[in-house]
Structure formats: C-alpha cells, structure tokens
Amino acid sequence: MNKIPASAVLACAFTLGLAGCATQDDPHQRAKVGAAVGAVAGAVLGHQVDHSSGRFIGAAVGALAGGAVGNYMDKQQQEFEAALQQERDANQLEIERLRDDTLKLTVDSEVSFDFGKADIQPAFEPSLDKLAALIVKYNRTVVHVVGHTDSVGSDTYNQELSVRRANSVGDYLAAYGVPRERLRTEGRGESEPRATNDTEAGRQLNRRVELFVKPIVEGEEERAYESPQYY
User: Structural domain boundaries of the chain?
Assistant: First the structure.
C-alpha cells in the first residue's frame, strides 16, 4: 500500500495557504482554506485505512503522541464551548468530556429535525457550520455520528430513522469540508434511552443525535475508529 509522505502534505497545505492569501477579498476564504487543508489531512488519513475491513494500517501522519492528547482535546473543547455557547444556553446542545478524552456533543432532535423526518432544519444549519469548522480545524480526530430515537413506533422504523438522521448530519459535515475518512455514522434506534419513554419529557431527551469526537493517538490509531460504547 502506498502512503503519502508527510512532506507532501505540508507542501499541499502551504500551497492552499498561498491560495488563501491571494484572494483575501473573499470573506469566506479562511473557512474554505481550512476545509481544504482538512481534506488534505483526511486524504492522508484515508490512505492509512484498509477500506475493505475498516481497520487502521500503520501510523497516521499527524497522530497525537499520548502526552499531547489531553492538551489538544482541552483546546478543542474550549473552542466548541465558546462557538456554541448560544446553543448550549438554549439547551439545544450539550458538550461533555468523557473519561478517554473523547468529546461528546449531544444535539436535541427537536431543533435539528422535524418530527419523524431526517432532513436537517435550515435554522440549525448555522450551528452545524460552526461545529464543522472546528472539526476541520482539529483534524487529528475521528467523528462518530450516532442517531437515537424514542420508543414511539416500531423497532424497525426507529432504527431506520436513527440511521437516516445520523447520515444527514454526516453528509452535512462532509459537504462543509470534513473528510469522509474522518466520519463514521450509525443509528441505534430506541435501544439507548437517556430517560424514560413513559413521559413526553423523557421521549424528547431520547430523540437526539450524538457526535463523539475521538482523538487519533499514536500507536493506538484503531481505537479512534471503534464504535463508541458508553452506555
């Protein structure tokens, strides 16, 4: 399997940076350049993954040394919290640091999807833009998007709906510029409730999408791709 040298990545990133400097009249240029640089990093990461098995092969370019993980995830958490403060104040989104330094972001489905639908509401797109920009910036992570539902309806329907909602969020992040190689999506239907399904308040808590932002640690790269199991 051929791997892209780190020097080639730096050259690509430098070229993209120059392109950004050449078009400073575009107010969105910094975001575009950031997305492009993230795509380059993702392409390198993708060459380290055996797509037939989903297993990681070799060391990732830019993987975090064990001692650097905490500081890297600290900075990322601080930027998530600052950028998404309005959403947090409105109880639309929660940010939690897990024991293995994974960042867990829980998005309330009431503000992101219409009932029984999987199309992202336009009003929530600016929030996803802010989230996507930071995911692109902090590119030494793998992002798992997990959909959940309440227990209203059949198991099959809820499982399919949770998958479609997770895919919608994953597709949105990819369209913004998050490399597909860094994204994993799955649905868990009604199998992991946060609260009782016997009340409307509980069912509302159970209707959600969770994003697990997992650091890529040198020597333990496969763990970043493992499906998150915290319930």
Answer: 63-225
**What is the band of 62 on the pLDDT scale with cuts at 50, 70, 90?**
low
User: Model pTM?
Assistant: 0.76
Using left for φ > 0, alpha for ψ between -120 and 50, and beta otherwise, residue 188 falls in alpha
- Residue 143 CA to residue 4 CA, distance in Å, equals 22
Q: Which of 143, 108, 136 is nearest to 213 (CA)?
A: 143
Q: Is 62 helix (H, G, I), strand (E, B) or coil?
A: coil
Sign of the dihedral defined by the CA atoms of residues 184, 190, 196, 202, in that order: positive
φ, ψ dihedrals at 204, nearest 5°: -65, -40
Give the whole-angstrom CA distance, residue 2 versus residue 60: 13
Give the CATH fold of the 63-225 domain: 60s Ribosomal Protein L30; Chain: A; (3.30.1330)
Taking the C-alpha atoms of residue 70 and residue 106, their distance in angstroms, rounded to an integer, is: 21
* Residue 144 bridge partners (DSSP): 184, 212
Instruction: Kindly state the percentage of the chain with pLDDT values over 90.
Output: 69
Neighbour count for residue 106 (Cβ, 10 Å):
18
Supply the DSSP symbol for 95: E
